[in-house]
Specification:
- Helix 1 (18-36) packs across helix 11 (301-319).
- The longest helix is centred in the first third of the chain and has 19 residues, at 18-36.
- This protein has 320 residues and is of the alpha/beta class.
- The protein has helices at residues 18-36, 59-70, 91-101, 115-125, 140-154, 177-186, 205-218, 228-232, 265-268, 291-294, 301-319; strands spanning 48-53, 74-79, 104-109, 130-135, 161-166, 192-196, 221-225, 237-241, 276-277.
- The strands form two sheets. A five-stranded parallel β-sheet has the order 7-6-5-8-9.
- It folds into two domains: 13-139 and 308-319, Aspartate/ornithine carbamoyltransferase (Rossmann fold); 141-305, Aspartate/ornithine carbamoyltransferase (Rossmann fold, 3-Layer(aba) Sandwich), CATH 3.40.50.1370.
- It has eleven helices and nine strands.
- Bound molecules: phosphoric acid mono(formamide)ester.
- Residues 57-60, 134, 142, 280-281 line the site of phosphoric acid mono(formamide)ester.
């Protein structure tokens, strides 16, 4: 590919071409090899990035902090409750100022109806690249790590049967950003994508339309069903994960009506004999998934989580 990613924002993978995504994945695979060989990678010496978090994080925060340190730079972790945001400072002012101090700015803000607008506003005014560390709509860093993991385990993605499946959980009302990102990304890579959920947990209509267009343009398929059993049947990859009801199409569903939407060993046995189980984590063990599955031989969740480090390093190395 021609051109450079220097200075490019990553608010959504929709703004990156497949060539740009492939470059990020090639870079991540190269950085992973160097990490395993303990080779120094001083690509971002003396560069700094500010990491703003409106919510808790384990993987995202540490992949960025440890990632930039391993590249020779430094990250400044910012809990937004301790910033002047809590006194009303606006996204534009925060974006302009923090980007003038360093080389990049990254933010997690999953507040429904606000997060993406907030990060986009910072990107509009920042003088340095802005990275979305998860908002109400997108989780591009997770999407990159998921795609890298699928390629590592399965090779070429064309024709792979991948099922993104709603699962029951009792923890907090989670954003739709992980399944939404996966639906829009995997459909660009020729996969046969199934999205399965009970009524009330729909993704926005525009996402379904765009995923179908992506699939059509890239030789794959995209379907939406309401049966967990059907989604597991013959699947090569299953990604059962909880998300909240945000569509606003009807009354809020009673989540307790859908306790049977759990990833079990019995369901895994109905999938392809080489099926892999994925989850962005953290998982709600015992509700979303049986321990026997997430701790079993078909689970690749730890490789998926580790790839958050390599992909985060790749994005920073290419854009900062
Ligand atoms: N998957 C993911 O984004 O994990 P964290 O919430 O721990 O960052």
């Amino acid at each position: 590919m021609h051109g450079t990613l220097k200075g490019k924002h990553l608010v959504s993978l929709r703004d990156w071409s497949n060539d740009e995504i492939n470059l990020a994945l090639d870079t991540a695979k190269d950085l992973k090899r160097r990490h395993y060989m303990d080779l120094p990678t001083p690509i971002l010496q003396y560069k700094t990035i500010a990491l703003m978090f409106f919510e808790a994080s384990t993987r995202t925060r540490n992949s960025m902090e440890m990632g930039i340190a391993q590249l020779g730079g430094h990250a400044n972790y910012l809990d937004t409750s301790t910033m002047q945001i809590s006194h009303g400072e606006v996204a534009r002012d925060t974006g302009v100022i923090l980007s003038s101090f360093g080389h990049g700015l990254a933010c997690r803000n999953c507040n429904w109806g606000e997060g993406n607008a907030y990060i986009s506003e910072m990107a509009k005014y920042a003088s340095r690249p802005v990275m979305n560390l998860q908002c109400d709509l997108y989780h591009p860093m997770q999407g990159l790590a998921d795609l890298m993991t699928i390629q590592e385990k399965c090779g070429p993605t064309k024709g792979l049967k991948v099922s993104i499946i709603w699962a029951f959980a009792t923890s907090h009302k989670k954003p739709i950003s992980v399944p939404l990102t996966q639906a829009l990304l995997f459909s660009r890579y020729g996969m046969e994508v199934t999205l399965a959920h009970p009524p009330g947990f729909e993704l926005p209509d525009w996402v379904i339309e765009e995923a179908k267009k992506n699939a059509w343009a890239n030789g794959g398929s995209f379907r939406v069903i309401d049966s967990m059993e059907e989604a597991f049947k013959d699947a090569d990859i299953v990604i059962p994960k909880n998300w909240g009801s945000w569509s606003g199409k009807g009354p809020e569903p009673n989540i307790n009506d859908f306790k049977q939407w759990k990833c079990t060993l019995a369901l895994m046995q109905t999938a392809s004999n080489k099926v892999y189980y994925m989850h962005a984590l953290p998982a709600d063990r015992g509700n979303e998934v049986e321990d026997a599955v997430i701790d079993g031989p078909q689970s690749i969740v730890y490789q998926e989580a580790e790839n958050r480090l390599h992909t985060a390093k790749a994005v920073m190395a290419l854009t900062l």
